[in-house]
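pasting for ref
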Amino acid sequence: MKIHRDLEPLLAVYTQERARIFDSTETDEFWLHAVSQACQQALDGAQLDDLEPKDVETLLNIILETTVGGKRLAYKHPTIAYNRWEAMQEIFEREPEGSTAMFSVLLDESKPVDRRLRKFEEFFEPRLTKLGEKRGLPRSWSSSKFHGLSTFVLELLSEKSYVAYQYQATKQFFDEYTDYQVKNASKRDTATQYSHLVGGYEEILDELSSFDPDADVHDVHAIIYNRETLESLADERGFRGAERQADSIQFTKADIESLLGGADSEEGSKAVARTFERFSGLIGREFFEYDWFETLIWSEPSPGSPYLGPAHTSIETSPYIWFGMAHETMSEFGRPTKGLQVEFGLNPGEKSGFFGRDVLCGIYLNPTTGDTELKEVVASRLRVHSTTFAEFLEDNDDYVLHIGDHKLRSPSATAIERHADSVSKGMLLTVDLTATDLTTANDVVPLVAEAFQELLPLYGKLADVDDFGEIDAGGEGGSGAGTDGAEPPNPPVTKPDDAEEFVRHLEATGQMVFHGPPGTGKTAQAYDFAHWWVSEHDRVDSVTNNVDVLTVHPAYTYEDFVEGLTARTDDDGDVCYEVKDGPFKSIVQRAYDEYQSAAPGEAAPYVLILDEINRGNVAELFGEAISLLESDKRAGGAHELRIGLPHSGDEFTIPPNLYLIGTMNTADRSIALVDAALRRRFRFRHFPPDYEYLRSAHDFDSWDDVEAAAAGDASVDPLVARSILALRRLNERIRSNLDRGQQLGHSYLLNSASESGEFEEPMEVVDVWRFEILPMLEEHYFGQFDRLRRELFDGATVDLIDWETEQVASFDQAGLATALDELR
């Protein structure tokens, strides 16, 4: 590894200050060394790969009881909550032999570190989760960053394996002072990340040994976490000259042009890539002290470094480079950095995927992302928070919003809602920058850091997390989803065709589920109906106050949904728990207030839409409150029930004017697997693919017209007609070979950027097949391409799939027309 000359002054001044830095009574910045020594001394003489229960008991007591700077060690560690160490101690007390065996496995250096970490975590993690559930704690308490427990034990006891406990700070240090590239790993591959960090430490230690022969890896840790102090001392004492690497980033015209040259300007492109690596580290340094920074994923798939686009590869068109960060909750949709993220990027070439821009700096959802579910979720949340986005754009005229093909400046909330479905073609909320703006800026770092800081709260709205605080422009109003910003007057809402049927079901039971394959309009129908129904009531001043939308996901628990405990640390370092209301309790309270203030039978309806309800554990979400959903057990009912909530002790009942609509994607989970408690309390309405709606939306008067159009050339109308017929045929085969829940919905063949749903260009239809329909079929037949060909394509070698490489083929409109003719 090449060490930059900038590091030598730090190493030199460190040898002068080593004693003071290691004195934990003088500085609170470096504390781990003393604790590590205490743990090693306590286990001196013990055989680490064959421990006894008393050894583990001693170790856990040191971790739990040692104080540094007036605070317990376990409070200081950034990735581990103190009560999780207490929980591990409780598990040890219950299973001393099994726990001791796992500690022995972890510390057995004769075995590969990945196997040791995996076995340790496989033993403790489910027990920790079960203990958290028993205590009524949020699932995140036991499931997040578990590997911190195991790697921390290695940090304390195994000097050869010693490694930094804060990945981001170390990664930034390596980026700035070395050419060592830390490889990334997911939580499932902790050992990979761990071993690469160890390698970096060993390289720096080799350099440090020339200054201090007695140095060890603890010294490397001390240097990393006292870097700013050492830099300041190096400047004061004249150790460092003009060659110091600057903390600013500038782009020249030559940098931008080098991205256009492909292989001909490979060295220039590599230089831009190196600049981006340093750039990402400087941006990260702006944020990594925030608690929420650890929830961000900066690369695929681990936190800590950017994904860099192929700026130095031989791409003839559309060379680009970017870095971005996504919240860890985006992992549920697959590869998080291919989905919704906050991103900075350059693309002076063809601008594919960049909405025609050469610079983007903002919230980004890639147009080519094939994850239909993610796009539907983002569109739903954009509608809910349209007022917040509109107010932000009104107050910040240097930002522009792209939704699909629509470029919006200072749009109204209504305009954002109207275009929300176009998120299927991607979304970008960005500072309005050009490449020229970058080349004239003295330092791009503060510009991008400020934009990220302003946009993260908005990103939080779309990611459905509140880690990033409030939004400066516009503010937040109300207490539930859909109540942000000022409350607009009720816009006119068209009555859905099946509105009367929905009202009948809801008034009978209080809740229903819209279920069917993806793309059949379940969420849109629920949203449109709820807004129409609420707007019809005289007592409703603002529809958004009466309709909440919540996207359910597997990690969602009772504590998130009804009420839970949130932890904080008081001034004495003690952990305290406070009750936090969830969205269900919030809308119940608002509906109950309305129920009490209105005359009998005149209370305005409140509607909670639970999008993707089957992705969560419904019994766990509602807990004891699920019994209150039944009509006769609601407030004022013949068998009214009131319960005491477990955390707050509040008396809780559900008023009759609260209605629930769940949506269920049956491609994700069969309706046959629905919990009996859900079946009994909800009415179910099936939403199949609607070919008649498709025919009408595309202005075909009859099915004979569709057949006639399909015989035409490869222009847009004949291509749409072929697609409708092919979709119907595919769904027939899916019903026969899979089940009806995995059919393809009609909305795949509707242009969300157009109010009519019609396509304007043939390539728009091609893109739907390449990036939406065919990837969904791949998912249905994952790893079974022979079966896919046999069951859906009747054994034919249809050119929509590259059967040799087993991936979606690249085809144009003519190729699609030919393939669809064979299919239908």
